[in-house]
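go over my protein:
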Amino acid sequence: MAKKQFGILVIGAGWVSTQHISAYVNNPHTKVRAICDINLDNARQRTYEAALSNVALYDNLADALQHDGIDAVSICTPQHIHCQNVLAAAQAGKHMIIEKPAANSLDELRQMRDAVNAAGVKTVVGFVLRWNPLFQNIKKLIAQGTLGELFYAETDYQSYNSSWWGGWEQGRRPELSHSAMAVAGCHAVDALRWFAAPGQNQAADPIEVFAYAGGKRKGKTHQYNPITNVWSEQSPLEYDGLEVILVRFANGTMGKVSVNFEGIQPYTFPLTIFGDRGTIKNNQLFAPQSPDQKQWREIPGICPDSSDVTHHPFQAEIDHFIQCLQDNTESHCNLTDAIKTHEVFFAAQQCYQTAKPVKLPLL
């Protein structure tokens, strides 16, 4: 018989944790039993906001993982400590959701993969846009063959990331956050893999990458705030704010993905998918079924047009995670699959050094 309720530990009490906690509260099969953060006031604030009671608060992860009745954890900490969190959770035998990006290096990914496999625990990596309503409807059209055989896709993450974001001081530094593609563009990389594969719950396997990096912001302090439309002096971005990656997939589909932290504009996530019988551009479909059909048709669903975490489908993602635990099944977005997304932007970094295509897999 499936377990009726899973005890949850939330690790990290920052912005994204608010959405994890809310989703667990709304899932009838979960109970948040503990929250861990190096700042106990942050953890306490999360309990007030969600009107939680009887929740233990910890500032030490080892102690939190020993709390009675914990079956699964949400890792919502900054990305540079994800690896140590995952290794500790795996050693404790806990299933886990790991916020994106999962790691800052191939070596960290290797350690995490080995630990998760040895522990036999279930994982979901937080590429939450796989559960976006528009993305799900697009994926259904692809799986139904509406576009015919896929041959090319483009996805782009366009958001001027600066001090409006609470994680800016860590997120702007390569030693803590690696790159623009790792910090946020990874959503677009994962979407590219998702749309380049024909199956309903399938992402395409990348086999070769070539990339360029550039832009104008790196090292400059005069920066833009897209929330207020005001320019001010801020701590500078320490890596390139623009990356463009070309990807070749094992199924023959070609792709292009970019991240742009430099565009003076509102947040956008444009996408284009080409098949030999139709095309999708953002939320528009053109796949004529008759000679007189000459107009684009709108695809229903919520567009991914905001960087605000409250806009993202965390409820659907976490419901999926819990369903995997109940059914004892692996997620289509588990760590093994997510490593393939990460390898694309780690390969891009290699390409910047060598100016040569990089073959995948890297692990």
